Amino acid sequence: MKIQWRLRMAAAQREVWTGTELRRLLAEKAGLQLSSASVSALFTKEPSQVKMTTLAALCTALECTPNDLIEVDTTPVERQIAPPRRSPTSRGPPPPGAVRCRPCDGRPRWARSNGTASPAADRSDISTASTAACAGAA
Questions:
Q1: What are phi and psi of 88, to 5 degrees?
Q2: Please, are residues 71 and 6 in contact by the beta-carbon 8 Å criterion?
Q3: What is the model's pTM?
Q4: What is the pLDDT of residues 105-137, one digit of tens each?
Q5: Per-residue pLDDT tens over the stretch 34-79
Q6: What is the maximum span of the chain, computed from C-alpha positions, in angstroms?
Q7: Contact between residue 129 and residue 118 where contact means Cβ atoms under 8 Å apart
Q8: Which residues does residue 5 pair with via DSSP β-bridges, in sequence order?
C-alpha cells in the first residue's frame, strides 16, 4: 500500500503557492495557529502522521476533502508464502550426526564426552553429589 501526500498540489489548484499563504489561511478560516516551520514541513515533506485537527483545518482552509490531500493506492500486494518457521522453544529431532548429551547420567560432562574416567571421579563427595542430583531429578 502506498500513500502520497498531495497538499502542495491541492494548494496549487487553489492558487496557494507558499507556506506563508497557507499559514494565513489556516489562521483566518480554520482558527489554527501553526508555526512557520510546521507549515513549511507540511508543505514540503510527506508527514508520517497528521493530527485529525490539523487535517480538518487544512480541509477547511483549502475548501477540500481529505481525499484531495491524501492519495492511497489500495492495490493488493502479492506476497510469497514462506514456509512455517519453528519457534525457538519447540524442539524437533536433533540434526543428523549430533550427539545428544544426557545431562544427569552421574558422570562429569568431560567424562561423558570422551569416555575416560577422571581420578577425581573416585572421590566420594563428587560421586555422591552426582548420584544425589540424578536421584533427585528422576
A1: -65, -20
A2: yes
A3: 0.54
A4: 666 666 656 555 555 555 545 555 555 555 555
A5: 999 999 999 888 999 999 999 999 999 999 999 999 998 888 878 7
A6: 95
A7: no
A8: 70
The grid cell for 92 is 524437533
Q: Write phi, then psi, for 8 (nearest 5 degrees).
A: -60, -40
Rounded Cα gap, residues 21 and 11, in angstroms? 10
- Grid coordinates belonging to 63: 475548501
Q: From 97, 108, 98, 113, select the one nearest 133 (Cα to Cα).
A: 108
Distance separating alpha carbons of residues 79 and 92, to the nearest angstrom: 28
Q: What is the chain's length?
A: 138
Determine the residue type at 135: A
- Give alpha helix (H) positions in the chain: 7-13, 19-25, 36-44, 52-62, 66-69, 109-114, 124-137
Residue 73 backbone phi and psi in degrees, to 5: -90, 110
